Amino acid sequence: MLNAFEPRVVLQEVPGEVSLAWLVTGCPLACSGCHSQDSWDPAAGTLLTPERLQGWLTRYQGLLTCVLFFGGEWDRDALLPLLRLAREQGLKTCLYSGRDRVSQTLMAELDYLKTGAWVAHLGGLDSRHSNQRLICLHSGGSLNHHFWRRS
Ligand code: SF4
């Protein structure tokens, strides 16, 4: 069972994609300095069912290219049907995980995967020193350079 806050349409988190982004609650990693501590409580938000996802996909039909989940990998059985539902409708899928790897079963339903916990002194995807990686799972290539600012 996964809960999530209301989704947002985002343009930058997955380069080249218009994503419906869900902040899933209940992340167990408790990174120091996490910007989303209000999402740690698994009871926060509302139950994220395939029906709820479908409602938003219908609302934004024709506008989206991707569905993005910030977390949720800790309940694989709840996340898998959501990923499959998105793909059945021709959408790509992305998971932002704080872990360094996720199961092969989840990866089989993903087009993009962000790995790595938040480590303040290394920074996020916009840092060239980050431990985090956003990977296209088709090419295996890192997409981090899309987040780097010119200096
Ligand atoms: S993985 Fe992300 S959401 Fe989870 S505690 Fe770390 S920074 Fe916060």
From TrEMBL:
Coiled coil: none annotated. InterPro entries: Aldolase_TIM (IPR013785), Anaer_RNR_activator (IPR014191), rSAM_sf (IPR058240). NCBIfam families: RNR_activ_nrdG3. This is Anaerobic ribonucleoside-triphosphate reductase activating protein. It comes from Oceanisphaera arctica.
